[in-house]
């Protein structure tokens, strides 16, 4: 087993009506609040009013930044950080999915410094301090609610990149599965795919002798495969929403990494390129890349694929294991080939060029330029 550090300071408030204590929790950090949210789902479903009521109850002074888009961009973060800085906010309250919470994480470390937030992503600057962040999660998928990562796009630099810093763990995250009931069917499925992909990125990382941690991975994937399709048939089922929300949080909060030196993250790096160029939703990008990535690496990591297949599907043949994943992604109506997500728009040369400039998938199982061509072909 590899050495590891387990550290996770986020307090999770999980379950029905946990928002009842949101106001008093915010109040522990101060009264000047920067409220960050997305394109309007929280206004449609009444959550915005509920949050404002909680903030009113503590006499908060509320500044707002709404309009964070899915596949969020750094420009919004800079604009929101300017508002936070100007008004010297005490605390940030992010209400939304991964895009909103990721943006708020970067806003939290950008407020204390007068630099473009992208400097953190280009590694020109390191986060040094952060305004406390509280999150209310409305979509189960990314795990951002209990981890130290944030992902943003910069279309000028042609990069969708990530940062990781212990400073950006949310102080508190409120997870009421009821809030995810309005998430439409397609994004519910992308979330299920995303959480499975997080477990897989950990599993294919560096550190193959973390047997207990491998079992966490198998359990998380089994949970998603058993209850995910049931949820898609019954979108307003609280218990199923709760199971998927819990699984998504556990898939990327450190637990699947104990005993490993690092995760793989190659599939995510390629998925980010599809999102960057074609605005493919994050989870959908992963269901396109994963089958192709596993096929490309089939003969390089046959033992890991066999072990995965044996534990999940009771099969040892790597190709059979890959087909089972592909079938599952199809069953939850996620795309498994590029054209299913982009139509005729997808351009192999363009994807190749951006993969080269981003040095995609060069972390644990390193792909070279020939591999890039092959994986693009496999995705088409
Ligand atoms: O913008 P609004 O109106 O809120 O609508 C959103 C958006 O259109 C909507 N939505 C969210 N909650 C809803 C809802 N609609 C109805 N009811 C609700 N309760 O869903 C759409 C997608 O939201 P988004 O936040 O973009 O989705 P997700 O949570 O999947 O986040 C994706 C982003 O997170 C990054 C991805 O790359 C992507 O940019 N990731 C972050 C990670 C992390 N920080 O650890 C890890 C992941 O691998 C991932 O890379
Ligand atoms: Zn992901």
UniProtKB/TrEMBL annotation:
Residues covered by the Fe-containing alcohol dehydrogenase-like C-terminal domain: 188-351
Molecular functions (GO terms): alcohol dehydrogenase (NADP+) activity; butanol dehydrogenase (NAD+) activity; metal ion binding; methylglyoxal reductase (NADPH) (acetol producing) activity
Cellular component GO terms, alphabetical: cytosol
InterPro entries assigned: ADH_Fe/GldA (IPR001670), ADH_Fe_C (IPR056798), BDH-like (IPR044731)
Source taxon at top rank: Bacteria
Keywords: Oxidoreductase
SUPFAM superfamilies xrefs: Dehydroquinate synthase-like
Chain ranges of the Alcohol dehydrogenase iron-type/glycerol dehydrogenase GldA domain: 9-177
CDD domains tied to this protein: BDH
Keyword tRNA processing attributed: no
Record's keyword annotation contains Phosphoprotein: no
Pfam families in the record: ADH_Fe_C (PF25137), Fe-ADH (PF00465)
Family: Belongs to the iron-containing alcohol dehydrogenase family.
Name assigned to this protein: Alcohol dehydrogenase YqhD, Fe-dependent ADH family
Species whose genome carries this gene: Lentimicrobium saccharophilum
């Amino acid at each position: 087993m590899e050495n590891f550090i387990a550290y996770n300071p986020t307090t999770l408030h999980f379950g029905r009506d946990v928002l009842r204590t949101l106001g008093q929790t915010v109040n522990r950090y101060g009264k000047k609040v920067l409220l960050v949210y997305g394109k309007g789902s929280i206004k449609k479903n009444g959550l915005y009013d509920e949050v404002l009521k909680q903030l009113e109850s503590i006499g908060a002074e509320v500044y707002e930044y709404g309009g964070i888009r899915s596949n969020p961009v750094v420009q919004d973060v800079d604009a929101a950080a300017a508002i936070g800085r100007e008004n010297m906010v005490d605390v940030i309250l992010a209400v939304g999915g991964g895009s909103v919470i990721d943006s708020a994480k970067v806003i939290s470390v950008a407020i204390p410094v007068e630099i473009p937030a992208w400097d953190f992503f280009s590694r020109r600057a390191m986060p040094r301090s952060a305004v406390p962040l509280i999150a209310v999660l409305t979509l189960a998928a990314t795990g951002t609610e209990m981890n130290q990562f944030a992902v943003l796009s910069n279309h000028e630099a042609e990069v969708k990149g990530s940062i990781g810093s212990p400073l950006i763990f949310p102080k508190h995250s409120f997870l009421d599965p009821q809030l995810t009931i309005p998430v439409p069917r397609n994004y519910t499925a992308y979330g299920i795919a995303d959480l499975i992909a997080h477990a897989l990125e950990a599993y294919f990382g560096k550190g193959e002798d973390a047997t207990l941690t491998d079992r966490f991975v198998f359990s998380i994937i089994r949970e998603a495969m058993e209850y995910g399709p049931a949820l898609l048939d019954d979108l307003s089922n609280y218990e199923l929403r709760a199971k998927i929300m819990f699984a998504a949080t556990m898939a990327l909060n450190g637990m699947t990494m104990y005993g490993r030196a690092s995760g793989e993250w190659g599939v995510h790096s390629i998925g980010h390129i599809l999102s960057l160029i074609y605005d493919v939703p994050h989870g959908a990008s992963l269901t396109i890349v994963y089958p192709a990535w596993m096929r490309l690496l089939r003969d390089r990591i046959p033992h890991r694929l066999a072990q995965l297949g044996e534990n999940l599907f009771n099969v040892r043949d790597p190709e059979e294991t890959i087909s089972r994943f592909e079938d599952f992604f199809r069953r939850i109506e996620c795309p498994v080939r590029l054209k299913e997500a982009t139509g005729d728009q997808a351009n192999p040369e363009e994807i190749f060029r951006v993969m080269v400039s981003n040095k995609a998938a060069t972390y644990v199982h390193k792909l070279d330029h020939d591999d890039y061509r092959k994986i693009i072909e496999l995705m088409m």
